[in-house]
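Input chain follows. Return structure tokens only.
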Amino acid sequence: MARERFSFNDTKEYNKDDLQPNNDLHAGQTGKFTFDDEIEEKPKKVKKVKKAKQPKSGKKLKLKKWHVFITVLVVLIVAFLLYIFVFFGNNKGPVYGQRCVKLLSVDQNMVSQVESQIEQDDRIQDLAVKVDCRTIKLTYQLVDNVSADDAKSLVEDSVHTFDDAMGQQKDDGAAWSQLLNKANGRLQYDLEIIVKSNGDSDFPLFGTKHAGIDDITYTGQNVKDQDAANKAIQRQAEVDAANAANQ
């Protein structure tokens, strides 16, 4: 009995031997029909990505000879300046050099006390004492209408009071102590004096006493040597300005 083959009306039957490959992908290669998953694909070449250059850390600093020279020179200059100001610090620095060496010490507390003691005289309104290296400067402000001669006598008495209060040794027969004479093998302090008062045309008076010399010499405002007076006035103005700046 023959087997009846069932098929749909829309299904077309083909003989296996009649089938021909019709694959566009492989049509140009072989006549053999193959499936897509049977094709061997060549591996794709992967491009190497260049790594970004990293900044070098710890790069060595190359020093040139002139760098070293300048550095050494600056260090030497700084060391020299420190040496000058530290070594000569107690002697008013390098401006004065050896001028302030071997000087007797002046007690500033005692200076303040003797200023107050001298100002107890009714004719003396104010006294300012400044020690600058080997010079002691005394500035007097007297009451009005004091004569020049009385002012000179008043100043000399007060300077003796100051000298005695400093407590330095006085040689036999000397008018002044070693503070205003000679000690430690060298002359000590000079005096610069200015005396101010209203009412007398001779004021201000400018007095000087050099170490080792007993007398105090004065230059008045109205003297024949007006040039010397002007220089003294200018000098005192510079001193007053410097003192005001330091306060």
